[in-house]
């Protein structure tokens, strides 16, 4: 069971932002979005800790997440959705609508993962820990990505750099409505970057790095 103090985040309604203006969207999330820090170093073998802030809000159609990362080491090998983006400079969002995530049989818990590298390339799947199905190409197209760095401007691999990424995940895709309470965790990783690291928002206790543990997810709510 999870005996750690559970993190909590209350996510505000943003209204209906214009999708065409990245800077206005980012500034609105910085101004009124719920703020959290991804700063838990759960495994002492991986002490590297870039600074990572996330801001969250929602609109009628989307859950908006804005990641700001400082002092990371660049890697962006994956260029097509559903490739292993966790090996790159990567941020992640895992969500579970099952409130009873402390159930005795953890293997039966269904959750979704959304993993993004610095270019906005995404890997996403749904299912239990032992049986997961990747989202279809059409579902992946519904996830909006606004990378601060594009392919033509990317640093050299291994360079220390700062970056940001905004994504919009359709509420229908994750089964959420205003007022819903659910479980989730935010992550920052980079398995094959110059300094591998595995940071989380809500603390994890496991022998080795593993983000696929819903019992350690925090509490989130879409404020109505």
Describe the structure.
This protein has about 220 residues and is mainly beta. It has a single domain (about 10-220), classed as Immunoglobulin-like (Sandwich). It has three helices and 14 strands. Strands 1, 3, 6, 7, 8, 9, 12, 13 and 14 form a nine-stranded mixed beta sheet that branches. A five-stranded antiparallel beta sheet has the order 2-4-5-11-10. Strand 4 and strand 5 form a beta hairpin.
How are the SSEs placed, and which strands pair?
Elements: E1 8-11, H1 22-32, E2 34-37, E3 40-41, E4 51-58, E5 62-73, E6 90-96, E7 111-117, E8 122-127, E9 132-134, H2 137-141, E10 144-147, E11 160-170, H3 171-174, E12 181-189, E13 198-200, E14 218-222
Parallel strand pairs: 1-14
Antiparallel strand pairs: 2-4, 3-13, 4-5, 5-11, 6-7, 6-12, 7-8, 8-9, 10-11, 12-13, 12-14
Beta strands, count? 14
Instruction: Briefly note the CATH topology name.
Output: Immunoglobulin-like
CATH architecture: Sandwich
Cα separation of the termini: 31 Å
User: Which word captures the global form?
Assistant: globular
Indicate the mean pLDDT: 92
**Count the helices. How many?**
3
How many domains would you count in the coordinates? 1
Helix content: under 10%
What's the CATH C level? Answer: Mainly Beta
Question: Could you name the ranges where pLDDT drops below 50 across 5 or more consecutive residues?
Answer: none
Biggest β-sheet strands, sense, barrel: 9 strands, mixed
Strand content: 35-45%
Radius of gyration: 16 Å
